[in-house]
Amino acid sequence: MSEEQARYPKLGKILNLIIKMQSRSSGITLNDIQEELEVSRRSAERLRDVLIWEIPQIVELNSSGREKHWGFSRSSHMREIISFTKDEIAELETIKDSLEFDNKKEVLNSVITKLKALSKKDSIQIEDAVEILLKTEGNAISQKPSYKINAEILDLIRQAIKENRRLKTKYDNKEKILSPYGIIYGTSAYLIGVEGSYKEPYVYKLHKISSAELTEETYDKGDFDIREYANRSFGVYQNEIIKVELLFSKNVAEDVLNYNFHPSQKVKQNEDGTITVKFKASGELEIMWHIFRWGDNVKIISPKSLRKEYIEYLKKVLETQEGK
Fold first, then answer.
1. Which of 18, 97, 197, 246 has its CA 20 to 30 A from that of 1?
2. Residue 163 burial class via C-beta count within 10 angstroms: exposed 0-12, middle 13-18, buried 19 and up
3. Closest to 11 (Cα-Cα) out of 104, 118, 130, 109
4. Count of CB atoms within 10 A of residue 266's CB?
5. What distances in angstroms separate CA 298 from CA 102, 106, 236, 292, one per listed residue?
């Protein structure tokens, strides 16, 4: 059996473990994790830490006796937390059919059945579960800067979005009444919403919301769609949409061909080995930040205004580093 095929039964156990967290009002303990996955105490602690990090709805519950218990906060539900796409489930079906042992097929088929039952909303997907598994085994870590976000505030925001209720918040030490529309995860987590009587959505950094309280006042977000909103920009901040064309050197051709820049992107491999990438988006500053990470392996072809702005941006960076 291949190493990848052998991993799926363990993935099924982790999914069962998460389901148990939801089904038990008292949650689960480290001993429960050890018994379910047949792992050491240290591995159980590592899995608990990974689950808490990756799924903010998992919290420490009121514990009785010596042992601590972890589970989902009262207002969280599995159906709203776990979801899988049709393509992902189809891929698992293919893997199942390729297995040689009937007992392994039976285990994976049980997992697939549960995934289909839970696939109602967009949230944690199969690749996220595999990532959790890798982190649990000590074979992967999150190596990226991130901001701490209060899980209780995040839960209130989710409830406010579901019930179309306004939030009384303290944002960057200022009192604000917000109508939350949705959340976008980028280099940080951002709340998209409307303040007070304004009509246009604005971007708020979640880690700057220090307190939140549900009000009885409701709001109507009309036909706002968080996906359509996100697809209009390169990052989260929006302004005029521009047509961008980038030329990447053949040194990074393989990386570029396997990279997702934007939902509207069109990628072409040129005869000389270079790669042309075109997309439409707003957010010039975030586009420039992203271009910078490719170093001297990328050139801005159009628009000329973006290339000019990028050159000025690089000059300012250079002047700062040289102490001018």
1. 18
2. exposed
3. 130
4. 11
5. 50, 49, 23, 9
- 3-class secondary structure per residue, the chain: CCHHHHHHHHHHHHHHHHHHHHHCCCCECHHHHHHHHCCCHHHHHHHHHHHHHHCCCEEEECCCCCCCEEEECCCCCHHHHECCCHHHHHHHHHHHHHCCCHHHHHHHHHHHHHHHHHCCCCCECHHHHHHHHHHHCCCCCCCCCCCCCCHHHHHHHHHHHHHCEEEEEEECCEEEEEEEEEEEECCCEEEEEEECCCCCCEEEEHHHEEEEEEEEEECCCCCCCHHHHHHCECCCCCCCCEEEEEEECHHHHHHHHCCCCCCCCEEEECCCCCEEEEEEEECHHHHHHHHHCCHHHEEEEECHHHHHHHHHHHHHHHHHHHCC
CA distance readout (Å), 173 to 53, 134, 170, 207, 210 = 26, 39, 6, 12, 8
State both tokens at 236. 């989260």
> How many Cβ atoms are within 10 Å of 324's Cβ, its own excluded?
8
Contact 53, 152 (CB under 8 A): no
Which of 84-98, 150-164, 199-213 comes out lowest in average pLDDT? 84-98
Is there a contact between 177 and 160 (Cβ–Cβ < 8 Å)?
A: no
Q: What share of the chain in percent tops pLDDT 90?
A: 19
